[in-house]
Amino acid sequence: MEAIKHVIVGTAGHIDHGKSSLVEALTGTNPDRLEEEKRRGITLDLGFAFLELDGVRLGLVDVPGHERFVRNMLAGAGGIDLVLLVIAADEGSKPQTREHFEICRLLGIPRGIIAITKSDLADSDSLGLVRLEIEEFVRGSFLDGAPIVAVSARSGAGLDELKNVLRRAAQAVAAKDATQNFRLPIDRSFAMKGFGTVVTGTLISGAVKVEDEVELYPARKRLRVRGLHSGGKQIERAVAGQRTAVNLAGIEHEEITRGMVLAPAGLFEATQRVDARVTLLDSAPPLKNRARVHFHQGTAEAIAEVILLNDGGGEVAAGGSVFAQLRLDQPLLLLPGDRFVLRRFSPVVTIGGGTVLDARAPRHKRLDATVAPFLVVMENGKREEILGALVEAVPRGLTLAEILARTGWIDSETRAASEKLAAAKRVRILGSAPIVVAPAQAVTDCAVAIRKAVETFHGANPLSPGIPKPELRARAGRARAEIFEAALGDLVAARAVVTAGDLVSQAGREITLSTEETRAKELIEREFESAGLTVPGLAGVLAKLPVDAARAQKILQILLREKVLVKISSDLVFHRSTLQRLREMLAKYRKERGARLPITAFKELTGITRKYAIPLLEHLDREQVTRRAGDERVIL
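Above: the chain sequence. Below: its structure as tokens.
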């Protein structure tokens, strides 16, 4: 069965120009759902109706026309594929007609249809004049050349022609990609008896299924989808472009407000600071730096402070376009590419709009020369160019999850872009869980810092075999662990450094001892070799050496690393030849007297006291030369 295409059609136009009556005439559904709306004859909030035309399901969003309720119009405009601009034959275009039209332009709605309503109230000459006025009104806009259909909701005239025009226009709308991350901006929340909390909205991307775990942003509450409805029918899965009602488990409807968004759990983060392209209407007053405005995106509304990022500084003139940072008074879920509308703080009129470019923008220094080139890439670049700019702006690198949250891309898109950049040697893909995409230059810089730190360490510690990795990472600038390991791996592969366990040293480096250090090393070795199994205390041996205490300790460590000496406890060190003779002694004992070895027999055999016997036996157990069996040992 062929899938039904879902297209959202939004009505726009002046109050009382017949939008709701036209929707009811087309669909048989009165979109005025509130008693006050029906009583007053105007739409105060969003109304919805549905119309199926040859495999295309149209969701008609009837938005308010009264100035007081333009914010509701803005809430309904999100996700619109096609606008139905309504202009009454007896009045022509009016102030709200122009404002709704400008809002549709600012939101980037790609196409539309114009309906001349109340055609039964005008003669043919008057309709001709209205048509000419409309053509002039929309010239040069996205509605230039759009179909203009005269209709009458009262008599039914022109309705069939309008349905045909709607069908053709809807078929030309590009199908939405249900594989993208789903987002549903909420425009209503209410309780339904027997179901609980229900929210409605237009699914602007992706898909959602019954029993999915979702998250409510910015509240960061994880919820379960109990049920889905669209067009009055229960469905198992909703896809992009559908008007959708979602029955949610785990929350009361009073906790949810218009402007919140349902999206995948744990994927995104709300933001209060975005970089954007802002464009003013030709009719707008100049926009001053740090001006406060009303910000509308999707179903959300906030107050924003506009920080201009242009060289001119002070203000943007009518019709101008500029990069700006918008600082919001509350967190919203925003992603790059989201279109928004700006309205003047007071008086409240539409002055412009724009597109989000960076939804996780840092604070910028005034006239930072790197900002504009970065935002140009964010605005116009291909996906790999955008990812390259993001990663290069964050030298510590970004995890896959951080990239997804910042861009809104899906996993496969991010991996493909990362691989292209890696092939071009702009980034390195590091680690596995999580994957980190880091600038190639960051790995190179870290390798340079590591080499310098190792060289400096050896200069200051000539008797040390190498520097421990944690200390090296700290000395090399505390790079991200994945970057540090990649840089270290590059140096090992290039044979510039070597690693031994946790120690890193210069390749080919040998410890060179001075004459007195060589003499001290010989003295330590001779002292322990001649002592046999009754070894002296470490402190006493080191105190007699012709070098200072620090060098004495380092020379001791050299002997231990070379396994000339073996430390079997915190204060007992033996020469390796002594321990080898002990093994031979035990092997002979086993051959002559059997494997059982009481502690008293061991003491007699070796001629040592308990002070030495117990630590030596524990060492032999660890070396699997003996095995403890009660109070005895078994020689293996």
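Residues 402 and 409 are 11 Å apart (CA to CA).
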